[in-house]
Amino acid sequence: MDFNVRKLASDAGIFFSRAVQFTEEKLGQAEKTELDTHFENLLARADCTKNWTEKIYRQTEVLLQPNPGARIEEFLYEKLDRKIPPRATNGEILSQFMLEAAKEFGPGTPYGSTLIKVGDCQRRLGGAEREFLQASSISFLTPLRNFLEGDWRTISRERRLLENRRLDLDACKARLKKAKAAEAKAAAVPDFQETRPRNYVLSASASALWSEELDKSEQELRVAQAEFDRQAEVTRLLLEGISSTHVNHLRCLREFAEAQAMYYNQCHKYMQELQRELGRRCPDSLEVNCEPSGSPSDLLNSPSPLDSDTLQIEEVQPPASGTRKARVLYDYTAADSSELSLRADELITVYTMPGMDSDWLIGERGNQKGKVPVTYLELLS
């Protein structure tokens, strides 16, 4: 206990003396050992690297996990050194809701079957997002965090130690300067013509004491200078390693960009597949108001190439080539005699005519013939 109290008192004394020294340096009342220009540039470069790395790291966390509550939870698990429990992505949760809704509405209904298709696409999107988050965390976030929590802490510790060595060196310089001034003053005071031997003895004794103090201060200065130079070299080597840190972060940044590009490519691919499955128009049986292209006046003034008044379906002949097989996705009831009623899962022959609306095809089933909507069909090769 006695040792701890003494150490505490010693540390408090050192802290107080250094605080006074800092204040005097700020007020210009004490000399300060300046570092060379190259060293100052290394310090500025290191501080810039730390600040921007920290900002990029924090914003990347926000990009990968926008939910602040989830980020705090992951942070606590990391600090407690516990495994983070698996968490479903938003796309996977939405997929689960859509698939459950499809069961309630009936998988055989147009709405239910569409929910299944969209839900499956959302599940794949969620899976791609999970892979992207894992890849980005390993290849980008982890190296940045390792720098901030590892290399930068080492650099900060050595910089603090260097600052303490500088303060000790400046304190030794101040003591040496004070000792030289006192010795000069003591040497000037003795009067060898002094008639009182006692005064001469006292003056000579003071001069000897200050001479001894001067030798001691010079020895302490040499030790402090050696420790400062050694610590400056260690800190310089660590600061020069920032260049290697930049190279490592550059490689990680490229891997992050590649992972992000792969993720968006997968999402684009999945959405294109979903669009092909759903078609370009909403099924009429769902009674959804799909917006037609063109103005209302254009639609009224331009007759359909396959309108029953201008073209009789019975007169339409299939082309010599270009017919295809198609599978019917949903039941469809013909609106008039020019259209063909459809039954889900049946196979029909389809083809198009010059000038025909791209949303419709001519369908044939045996001797029956009529217009059929493209969105109800799956074209087979």
Automatic annotation (TrEMBL):
One GO cellular component term noted in the UniProt record for this chain: cytoplasm
Residue ranges of domain SH3 in the record: 321-381
Presence of the UniProt keyword Iron in the record: no
PROSITE patterns tied to this protein: BAR, SH3
Annotated keywords: Coiled coil, Cytoplasm, SH3 domain
Gene3D superfamilies hit by this protein: Arfaptin homology (AH) domain/BAR domain, SH3 Domains
A Pfam family: SH3_9
Coiled-coil segments on the chain, per record: 207-234
Domain annotation BAR: ranges: 24-287
Highest rank taxon of the organism: Eukaryota
Main location: cytoplasm
Places the protein is found: Cytoplasm
Subunit structure of this chain's protein: Homodimer, and heterodimer with SH3GLB1.
The family this protein is said to belong to: Belongs to the endophilin family.
Name of the protein: Endophilin-B2
Organism this protein belongs to: Danio rerio
Gene name for this UniProt entry: sh3glb2a
